[in-house]
Amino acid sequence: MKRMKRLILTLFVGLLCFTYQAKAQWTVIDPSNLVQNIKSAVQSSTTATNMVKSLQESIKIYNQSKAYYDALKSVHNIIKDARKVKLTLEMVSEITEIYTSGFNRMVSDPNFTVDELAAISAGYARLLEEGGALVAELKTVITGGNGLSLSDKERMDVVDQVYTKMLEYRNLTRYYTRKTISVSFIRGREKGDAHRVLALYGNPNDRYW
Q1: 93-126 burial by CB neighbour count: b if 16+ within 10 A, else e?
Q2: 52: which DSSP letter?
Q3: Which N-terminal residues, if any, form the signal peptide (predicted)?
Q4: 189-205 average pLDDT score
């Protein structure tokens, strides 16, 4: 009877994972255009270098998370809360997409100064850095790399905590992007060219912000 219950649970969890995989999307990030736009918009080589460096670090975190995400696809005996593990990793992809999509528009926006762009870039880098730290924590707990012996419940508790924190950073990235873009809208309205700002960033319902 116990074996039957265990088998049913395993099949059910597997079905959930399969269903979720069918819906899951991992964004393909191509930073080359953003790098070129940064170099074109920012005359100071030092500032441009720092921005590109922040972008490269963000992409590094993204790639590490994607590699871990891909590795999870081949794991069948992962803890029961596998769905939250995947959601957590996918939020790194979403945060990176929000960053690259939004900031790519901002560097071509005359309503922002070079110093402001540098500060905005640093803010995004900080959010990605925190997200990367959460991914590292998640990986350590799942693989047991911290040398501690944790029960399934303890592991699930940590997964819940990491998921909640990552969700907060994802929402913060959205909020940060919306507030930054709103500055351009205000400045554009004062100059009488709000239509140009709207054309640059698109509809407020666009997912990247």
Answers
A1: bbbbbbbbbbbbbbbebebbeeeebbebbebbbe
A2: H
A3: 1-24
A4: 84
**Alpha helix (H) residue ranges in the chain:** 2-23, 32-41, 45-72, 82-106, 114-143, 152-191, 194-201
CB 69 within 8 A of CB 137: no
- Under the banding of pLDDT at 50, 70 and 90, the label for residue 208 is low
Q: How many residues does the chain have?
A: 209
Name residue, tokens 């399969």.
18
Tell me, what DSSP letter sits at residue 4? H
Rounded to two decimals, what is the model's pTM?
A: 0.74
pLDDT at 186: 93
- Domain range annotation of the chain: 2-201
Question: Which residue type does 142 have?
Answer: I
> Is the pLDDT assigned to residue 111 strictly greater than 90?
yes
